[in-house]
Amino acid sequence: FNAASLGLQARIKIFPLLFASGGGYVGYDQYCRYKDRELTKIGIEVPPRIANATQVALYKSIPTRLLSRAWGRLNQVELPTWLRKPVYSLYIWTFGVNMQEAAVEDLIHYRNLGEFFRRKLKPAVRPVCDSHCVISPADGKILHFGRVRNCEVEQVKGVTYSLETFLGPHTWAEAINNTVKPSNKDDPSSFQDLLVTKEGNELFHCVVYLAPGDYHCFHSPTDWRVAHRRHFPGSLMSVNPGVARWIKELFCHNERVVLSGEWAHGFFSLTAVGATNVGSIRIYFDKELRTNAPRYSKGSYNDFSYLSNNNQEGVSMRKGEHLGEFNLG
Amino acid sequence: STIVLLFEAPRDFTFNLKAGQKIRFGEPLGTM
């Protein structure tokens, strides 16, 4: 009994210590953020506060995939009719969902939150712009956009990730135009040169963040032919703008599906990056794709070519055509 | 979730966007 009470006392003594040190850390962190905000207010550009390796490792140690799958299972449970309206109304209120645009506005129609999350929109509410060659593939917020320089892409201003890590080795070209130009490891920009197939062209990127209340299907951003899919199993950390400003290479850690092919001006790719609450990615024309599986080996990826002997073109997609969706869990 | 577009285009391709702006499916991102 003595030993037990000693052990209990030790645990009780440690708790205030943990609480104090944790509180001290959070307090110091908040003070630094306050200082940054004050400096920004007087016009001094403050570099984003990036997480160090320990913080990233700590965050990655959270079982986000397990949580995501559990969240998905929960949202496949069919809700009793009387519970649907209150549950979905809370979600609508919390995330600012605009139900007037939904193809089916009657909340009772959706058997569970997963179905509600996959709701479609009335076709008329999203006219596809004809006068521009590239349109937004989804509803969301523009995190960053611009020209790609030195093979580094910005996830948000000032926080970059490596293009080669994000897309993986440039071997899909074998599928598209039967050429394999090995990228020169010690010259990162050579990878970027491999992607640009036409003289005088540049590489551009655009990052669209979909918030939980946004319409979560995505469409083809231009007229192009999809030749190849590369699926990277990975973490499912949150990708909200605050985290994107804090964790460098965030999009290279997370589960993602890279679709690559060609449009009128050469190379074109669309990458869907999963997140904690939306761990599953569906591509309507790719029945083989399985994302957020229980087991995967770190750093692995699997390739799939849409070209075959009798289809050297790949999958043709028209601008605005339904391409895929993010699912809960 | 996030969607990242990466593509090659002629040098005079321009985005008509502002970082942080809301955008909806079907709206223009940019053009030559």
Keywords:
heterodimer, A: 329 residues, alpha+beta, five-stranded antiparallel beta sheet, three-stranded antiparallel beta sheet, 13 strands, B: 32 residues, mainly beta, globular
Quick summary:
The complex is a heterodimer of chains A (329) and B (32). Chain A is 33% helix and 22% strand.
Explain what the structure shows.
- The complex is a heterodimer of chains A (329) and B (32).
- With 329 residues, chain A is α+β, with helices and mostly antiparallel strands.
- In chain A, 33% of the residues lie in helices and 22% in strands.
- Chain A is built from ten helices and 13 strands.
- Chain A has helices at 2-41, 53-61, 64-74, 81-95, 113-117, 163-167, 173-177, 189-195, 241-246, 250-253; strands at residues 134-135, 140-147, 152-156, 159-162, 201-209, 217-219, 224-232, 256-263, 266-273, 280-283, 302-305, 315-317, 322-327.
- In chain A, strands 7, 8, 9, 11 and 12 form a five-stranded antiparallel β-sheet that branches. A three-stranded antiparallel β-sheet of chain A has the order 6-13-10, with no helix packed on it. Chain A has a two-stranded antiparallel sheet with strand order 2-5.
- Chain A is globular and about 80 Å long.
- The model of chain A has no long low-confidence stretch (mean pLDDT 88).
- Chain B contains no helices and four strands.
- Chain B starts with a strand and ends with a strand.
- The mean pLDDT of chain B is 95.
- Chain B is globular, with a radius of gyration of 11 Å.
- Chain B has strands spanning 2-10, 14-15, 22-23, 28-31.
- Chain B is mainly β and 32 residues long.
- The chains are: A alpha+beta (329), B mainly beta (32).
- Strand 9 (266-273) of chain A pairs antiparallel with strand 1 (2-10) of chain B, so a sheet runs across the interface.
